[in-house]
Description:
alpha+beta, elongated
Amino acid sequence: xxxxxxxxxxxxxxxxxxxxxxxxxxxxxxxxxxxxxxxxxxxxxxxxxxxxxxxxxxxxxxxxxxxxxxxxxxxxxxxxxxxxxxxxxxxxxxxxxxxxxxxxxxxxxxxxxxxxxxxxxx
Length: 122
């Protein structure tokens, strides 16, 4: 019996601790808060917040791993925060001829995220 499991991942968005800190400071400055504050409205462990190569590298690795596990996975979905990452990630999916590649946009206030999804088998 072939059972396929859906997968939903929220990847680390940052390339390093410094990348994370600089982004938080920039966000706080835009919100007219303390200019040098690295306080944030969310927290997590280092491996939840940053990954060498950032979001694009993490999701690229996830795509390749999903291909290796295609007999065990069905629908794969991942949150994509940086819109510039969509084009190269979709190119990987299209190159490997994965099916049902979709991008769903989510708006939450001023924040826009995208969910990238693909199916590995029918």
